[in-house]
Amino acid sequence: MTRAGFVTFVGRPNAGKSTLLNRLVGTRLAIVSPKPQSTRERVVGILTDDTTQLVLLDTPGLLEPRYALHKAMQYAAQQAIADADLVVHLVDATSDRPEDLTALAQLPAPPTAPILVVLNKVDQLAPGRREALREEFPDAELISAATGEGIDALLAAIRRRVPESPFLYPADDISTQQTRFFVAEFIREAVMDQLEEEVPYGVAVEIDEFREGSTPLYIRAVLHVERESQKRILIGSGGSRIREIGRAARERIETLVGEPVFLDLWVKVLANWRRNPAALARLGFQVPTEESRP
Length: 294
Ligand SMILES: Nc1nc2c(ncn2[C@@H]2O[C@H](COP(=O)(O)OP(=O)(O)OP(=O)(O)O)[C@@H](O)[C@H]2O)c(=O)[nH]1
Ligand SMILES: [Mg+2]
Fold this sequence. Notes:
Elements: E1 3-10, H1 17-25, E2 43-48, E3 52-58, H2 68-83, E4 86-92, H3 101-104, E5 115-120, H4 127-136, E6 141-142, H5 151-161, H6 179-194, E7 204-211, E8 217-225, H7 228-235, H8 240-257, E9 261-269, H9 277-282
Parallel strand pairs: 1-3, 1-4, 4-5, 5-6, 8-9
Antiparallel strand pairs: 2-3, 7-8
Bound molecules: guanosine-5'-triphosphate and magnesium ion.
The site of magnesium ion (MG) has 6 residues, from helix 1.
């Protein structure tokens, strides 16, 4: 009998959820950044061995929503919690303590799935501090998503907790999401790496054209920004910044698709898109209405 199930990673921004997804799948699928709020939508990674298939759901960091994009991000996390067979609540052990997930995710009722508390970034802790955490939270797993420490024990703990089930997806799939989703994310990752303060948060990437069968693979993407001033920063003097963003993103895209890519980037203003439900819907975000809340 095989096991299979949905395992949802949740936690505060920057806890290391996306790093953990990439570590387990063994591929850089999800974008990672030292800046918080890098993940905006559910990212799916699949890990299959002979007996168990884990469908891993990475989610946006949980925060108090301040505008419509935040509400869509919180809703994505809430939905992934509702879909879960197991919730992995990831905590940055260098800065935070385990806390009540129902309150943190602003859920109307506790999740039905079991919750496994995982303390991350233990590579940054002194040995004495680790021991103290082990004693205080005996049911928690201590890991470093960055170094791989504790990952085998975590995987065993996860596998024990997913239900008996046939596999849900073909055994060699690593995601359910299309390449164009990851292309847009890798462009946004390059923006997060190269620009500071508010600018990365004001950028949304839309894939306009993805020309299958062309050599090199032609991809045209639009980087939407909220204001003219952000557009100028993103383009840079003589187009230097957008060229550099394109170069960095193209390298990652080529690694994913395994062929040469021509990446054609355009910058446009979509005024205040983060606060505008119609603009968010056009960009593919689901903004909850009162009725659709869990
Ligand atoms: N030292 C250390 N750093 C880590 C570890 N795991 C993640 N990080 C770093 O923490 C930062 C945030 O990691 P992410 O994986 O982007 O965190 P996240 O939880 O997905 O963040 P959001 O998507 O913003 O909610 C990055 O700089 C990672 O390199 C770890 O085990 N040890
Ligand atoms: Mg993330």
